[in-house]
Amino acid sequence: MSLNTTLEAKQSWKEVINTVKSLDPKKLEIIKATLPVVKEHGEAITKQFYKRMFKQHPELKNIFNMAHQITGHQPKALADAVYGAAANIEDFSQIMPVLERIGEKHRSLQIKPEHYPIVGENLLGAIKEVLGDAATDDIMNAWADAYGVIADVFIRMEDKMYRTTESQPGGWAGFRDFVVDKKVKESEVITSFYLKPKDGEQIAKFIPGQYLTVKMDKMSGEQYTNLRQYSLSDRPGLDYYRISVKREDSRKEGIPDGVVSNYLHNHVNEGDIIPISAPAGDFYLNMDSSLPLVLIGGGVGLTPMMCMLNTTVNENPNRTVYYIHAAINSNMHAFKDHVNGLAAEHKNVKSFVIYEKPTETDHEMKNYDKEGFFTLEWLQSILPSNDADFYFCGPSPFMKVVNQSLKQWNVPEEQIHYEFFGSFGNLDEY
Fold first, then answer.
1. pLDDT per residue over 265-281, tens digit each?
2. For binding FAD, which residues are annotated in this chain's numbering (predicted)?
3. Has residue 379 been placed in a domain?
């Protein structure tokens, strides 16, 4: 969505929050009393929930990322979401950013009202199975009503999102077919796909930092459709969307290779069709700020940073930008020539590179600024002050270090922005 469209949607969401029905006081007290128990057993409950739901409704495997079931990411994210929503059921406005994040994700995946009763039935069943006799009828009735309130909020919020997205210039409902216009290898592990609408019509604008959801439903050896989100890696206002995908190779026993990323790299070529839903996401650049902009990307986390960089150079060419990228070495470093070109052409763009394990050629060419890992001391050596807008994205351990460093440097909270791949969690919990 464009910035204006997003701001309009935010106002609509606030109206939904203000009119949400309240929970019966007696049942509210039961929810409060049982919250610690639900939190303690949260992951056990959500694991049982997915087991129940997929057994009774295997068609929902067409929506959920089954790889996250294997890694345990999805049950933890849902456990965080259930606890967070129930803990704030008296005033959802306290968790508005979280509701926005989940609502954007649901809209991009095409979660609809008819899915909520299925989720509710199996979630309540899982609570009963895990807690056993401790889950009395009064407790189950209270949680059933609480789920009804929470589901009502999401259904009404997401209805606003769907209607706003579809009615914007170039917007559309559901998934729309796009043609792979170009396929470009950016590094040993990252490849870009330039996507143009098959119908040749206008495409929706977006805010730098947002993502697309791609739908892959005819991959060899796969029984179900696979949906994945990829950040847009080029600026808005062009006649194409670009996503830059890292090929995810398994590094741990029992964790499979990335199904969709490997398929995109190995089997999708120029001229092929990829269905996508309209751009979504709650992580985006504040275009109105005049503060220096610091973009910090680790690995494939550079994709939204690239979008923000290209947009700023094009639309706000006088804004000072510090672009920092951390990679294993130059073989894994995508877009390095493009960024170097921007820095050479625009005096306000300053590029810095961290290589964890430089190659011999890297050592000879001295094409990096720091060897090893990101540190606060190094960041302070390249920035004149902490008075800037900081945006960062990358692997969770990398982001945790960046986040802790910025807090230690007393960067104001409102000037710290990051893409976190979770629900109610945040970096301080990891």
1. 999 999 999 999 999 99
2. 211, 228-231, 420-423
3. yes
